[in-house]
Design a protein that fits this description.
Number of domains: 1
Oligomer: single chain
Number of strands: 6
CATH topology: Rossmann fold
Helix content: 25-40%
């Protein structure tokens, strides 16, 4: 039985600024709005799970060991701010590989849900690209599209939109209040 609720988070452009093919952990910076948003979501008792496409591995821009180093450093920085990331799931494949794990597939979200006993109907996906939102929809979670990119106005397949992670967390807090009162 699924007993936890979760926030599935894209990494680049959502938690941290989007640096194409990030391979140097020294370039990681976490905006204050991300820290505030993650703390609020954690306070609301959501598990925080990163779900990210990392085709830089398949493209040969960096190795899987580099990605692990990046994620370990990001998790270290977040932990220093009192934020606990439950897990990180990533797709290392090229977009043309036709794999089953690359967003917009909901596979990584479903895999995380199975591993961590997540109740998908009580969970959300937050990302800055339509593929993030589609992944959420394909996995059966509600979604919030961050409008910090040119993609945010395209197909409007998302349920909610926000300008940053803190605003998204505030929306989820309000929705949680409404749902608990109904």
């Amino acid at each position: 039985m699924s007993i936890h609720k979760a926030i599935f988070l894209d990494r680049d452009g959502t938690i941290i600024p989007d640096i194409p093919y990030l391979s140097d952990e020294k370039l990681i910076s976490i905006p204050h709005s991300s820290i505030l948003g993650l703390k609020l979501l954690q306070h609301l008792e959501f598990k925080l799970i990163i779900v990210t496409n990392q085709s830089g591995i398949a493209r040969g821009y960096f190795k899987e060991s580099d990605l692990h180093r990046i994620h370990n450093h990001l998790l270290f920085l977040l932990k220093n701010d009192g934020i606990e990331i439950t897990d990180v799931f990533y797709c290392p494949h090229h977009p043309d590989d036709g794999c089953m794990c690359r967003k917009p597939s909901g596979y990584l979200i479903q895999k995380a849900a199975f591993k961590h006993d997540i109740h998908l109907s009580q969970s959300y996906m937050i990302g800055d690209k339509e593929t993030d939102v589609e992944a959420g929809r394909n996995a059966g979670v509600k979604s919030v599209l961050l409008s910090n990119s040119e993609e945010s106005t395209s197909h409007n397949i998302h349920e909610y939109s926000a300008t940053n992670l803190f605003e998204a967390a505030q929306q989820i807090q309000e929705l949680s209040k409404i749902l608990s009162n109904s």
